[in-house]
Design goal:
The chain has 299 residues and is of the alpha+beta class. The chain contains ten helices and four strands, in the order ααβαααααββααβα. It has two domains: 81 residues; 218 residues, Bacterial polysaccharide co-polymerase-like.
Length: 299
């Protein structure tokens, strides 16, 4: 039967003593290469901004004039409002606004003759390396930004959150304006219908027809009055338009770089390198010893 090899600490220590020069040489080369790479790696500065969503029903006429006002007592939004705003953050339109505003194709040094491909590459870098969006457990929308320039990092975070606020507020405002336009068209149509009845020749009609026309005129006037009341309500909502987001933590430049963490990274690399060396020489010596034992057994 073959003797079973058992790895033990004294065996590993002997291996380290035997291979110490090569281990030290490997670690020295690893240290120099890692140090140079970490020195050449540009600093990234971190900045963030936080905002909380407002109650979207405050910009909705149907909610404001609803007899049940319980849900309007709180001016802050709920998770549904936050989810709606967060979904607009993920739109390529939002990212491309930053690319245009900060000319990120040049900032990232993307030299492509095709401008569309350059924008797509900048968009990829922006999504994967530069920005991160978060919905916190406390209901905040937080925008994280990393960049080689601390001022640009802060400005990008603030500009992005402001764009998202404007986008969502404009969407609600446009919705209200469309309703106002439709109501104005309806009022104009009803007014023209009323004028047509007024200009009709009463002599060609019987008293019963005249009475019916008067009832119709009164109904049209009542409908116009109702439409004008609703129109005034929408105009009031439009004038009192509330922001979709309230920024509670504005981004400021942080001149202490966030990454790379050079000392921690270097220590981690050296420890991993040492472990790798010990593992490799242990495997090699074990295979060598196992082969020697098999050869002696065959003899």
């Amino acid at each position: 039967m073959h003797e079973k090899f058992v790895l033990n600490i004294p065996f590993v220590i002997d291996l380290i003593q035997k291979w110490k020069r090569k281990i030290l040489l490997f670690l020295a080369v690893l240290f120099i290469v890692s140090t140079l790479l970490l020195i050449l790696t540009p600093n990234l500065y971190y900045s963030y901004t936080s905002a909380i969503s407002t109650n979207s029903q405050l910009n909705d006429k149907s909610s404001i004039y609803n007899p049940n006002l319980d849900e309007l007592h709180n001016s802050l939004g709920n998770w549904a409002d936050l989810d709606r705003i967060y979904s607009t953050c993920e739109l390529d339109t939002s990212y491309k606004f930053l690319i245009r505003t900060f000319n990120l194709t040049d900032h990232y040094k993307i030299n492509l003759s095709d401008s569309n491909k350059a924008v797509q590459q900048a968009l990829h870098l922006l999504k994967t390396e530069t920005m991160k969006m978060e919905k916190t457990e406390t209901g905040l929308l937080r925008i994280h930004v990393w960049d080689k320039d601390p001022v640009i990092a802060a400005n990008m975070a603030n500009t992005f959150i402001q764009f998202i606020e404007n986008l969502n507020r404009n969407l609600q405002e446009q919705y209200n304006r469309n309703i106002i336009d439709k109501i104005n068209i309806n009022i104009k149509e009803k007014s023209n219908e009323y004028k047509d009845i007024e200009t009709a020749n009463p002599s060609a009609k019987t008293p019963a027809d005249v009475q019916l026309l008067q009832i119709k005129k009164n109904a049209i006037l009542e409908e116009i009055n109702q439409q004008e009341k609703i129109l005034n309500q929408y105009k009031l909502v439009l004038k009192a338009q509330q922001p979709s987001l309230i920024v509670i933590d504005k981004a400021t430049p942080n001149y202490k770089h966030d990454s790379p963490k050079r000392i921690m990274t270097l220590v981690t690399i050296m420890i991993c390198g040492l472990v790798f060396c010990i593992f490799l020489i242990t495997v090699l010596e074990s295979l060598k010893l196992y082969g020697t034992q098999n050869e002696s057994n065959r003899i």
